Structure formats: C-alpha cells, structure tokens
User: Which sequence fits this backbone?
C-alpha cells in the first residue's frame, strides 16, 4: 500500500473509529493531538442523533481528546441545518428522542402534532417510539406532509449486540402510508459531506475521511471526492470489500497508521 500523505483536514467517524462504546481505540488520543499540533483541521462525524453535539464533545474530552462543540457534527445538527436552508420556518413533527426536538426548538422550528399543519415528518433513531407517534406521522403524511430522515442506519451497534435504528422508523412510516422518504441527511448523504466541508472551510479533495463502515463513512467520503481510510476497528472487515459500493483509498488495522 502507498504511504498516506498529509491532508489539510481530517474527518473522523466516532463509534468504531475513535472509540468503541466507552473504550478509546489505539492511537486515537496521540493522533488527534499530533494533527492539531501540526495545524491540521479536525472534525468528528456521527450518524447518531440521540446525543447532542455538546454530549459528544464532553465524551471525547473525558476520553483525553479535548473537543469543542463546533468540531462535532451529528445528524440532528445536519437535519436542522438542512431545514434552515430548504424549509425555513417549516412546521415539523420529529419521530425522535429529545436531542433532535431540542435542536429544532432552539432553531425556531415549530413542532406540531396536527395533521395538515405538519409540513415535514422527521424519522429518526427513536428508542421511545410508540403507536401514537406512528399515528401522528400517518395522519400528517396523508394530509400532505413530506417524510425526511436523520440517518439511514438499520441498527446501532452496542456492546454485545445492537439497537434498531432510524431505518426501522422510516420503514414503519413508509409501510403504512405507501410513501417514500425523500431526504436522508446522514452518512452517506452528500448533505452530510457538504456540511462538514463547510465547517472545515476546505474543499473535499484536501480532506481525508476516516471511518469503520464501508457503506456510510467510505461511501460518503468517496462520493464527495475525498480520499478515505477504512480502519478495521469497528463494523467492516476486509472480506466486505468485495461487495462495497466504493473501495477505500487506504485500509489499516487501526488509527496508528496515521
Ligand atoms: Mg462507526
């Protein structure tokens, strides 16, 4: 494999790349310190909308990587940014946990439970999902609302297994309304790539996207024109490369390669 050159910006997935649950992964602390010390820009990216950006920044800081809120991008943030650009002031109904509701409220989006008033139903990773929420989404969709989503993940890996993720919520709403989700802002969406590129103020070809999932991290980076590094500390294995939508530029056992 060719040696990895230096980039102006480094974008890191979190779970499976920087840490695994509450366990920091080999090389992460030293690498981020070294990159910052040499003037490189760093951003952290997560598809998980169930924590706020502040919570991610706190977790990283606690693990030895001092992080500012502005260096973290997750899908509740990207969804709010997308709505601001494409549907300012729209009335929304998030099928989600509290952090997304808080971000929407803070950005001034009215939250409604009334069909006919709701312009966007936002499907998300929601461990508080109920039949009542599905009913509200169903009624709103039949009254003409659009379905959008924070992230396309089928499940979220947790120690010892996984939790059903946003794909299950999207599917439930699609199934009963015979509609399709029109926008999904999470990785591998170019919406997420554009948001991080803007945050770093760098063109995609000067960034390296680092992640553990071929179908989200690597696909997003490659599609956006970034070089990519697949680390084998999380979800994807070497054997998955044959069926991957995009091949990574580099592959390594862990972050110590950088
Ligand atoms: Mg990951």
Assistant:
């Amino acid at each position: 494999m060719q040696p990895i050159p230096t980039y102006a910006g480094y974008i890191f997935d979190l779970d499976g790349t920087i840490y695994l649950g509450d366990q920091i992964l080999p090389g992460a602390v030293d690498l981020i310190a070294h990159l910052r010390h040499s003037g490189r820009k760093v951003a952290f990216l997560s598809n998980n909308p169930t924590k706020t950006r502040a919570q991610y920044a706190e977790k990283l800081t606690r693990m030895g990587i001092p992080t500012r809120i502005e260096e973290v991008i997750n899908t509740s943030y990207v969804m709010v940014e997308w709505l601001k650009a494409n549907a300012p002031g729209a009335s929304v109904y998030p099928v989600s946990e509290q952090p997304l509701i808080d971000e929407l409220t803070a950005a001034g989006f009215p939250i409604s439970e009334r069909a006919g008033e709701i312009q966007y139903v936002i499907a998300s990773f929601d461990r508080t999902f109920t039949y009542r929420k599905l009913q509200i989404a169903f009624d709103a969709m039949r009254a003409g609302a659009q379905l959008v989503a924070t992230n396309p993940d089928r499940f979220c890996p947790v120690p010892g297994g996984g939790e059903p993720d946003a794909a299950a919520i999207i599917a439930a709403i699609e199934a009963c309304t015979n509609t399709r989700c029109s926008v999904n802002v999470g990785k591998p969406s170019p919406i997420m790539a554009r948001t991080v590129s803007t945050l770093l103020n760098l063109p995609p070809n000067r960034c390296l996207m680092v992640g553990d999932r071929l179908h989200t991290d690597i696909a997003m980076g490659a599609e956006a024109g970034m070089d990519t590094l697949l680390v084998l500390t999380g979800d994807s294995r070497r054997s998955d490369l044959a069926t991957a939508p995009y091949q990574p530029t580099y592959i390594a056992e862990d972050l110590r390669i950088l």
The pocket of magnesium ion is lined by residues 13, 15-17, 211-213, 234-235 (CB under 6 Å). The helical segments are 28-37, 53-62, 75-86, 98-106, 131-142, 166-177, 190-200, 214-224.
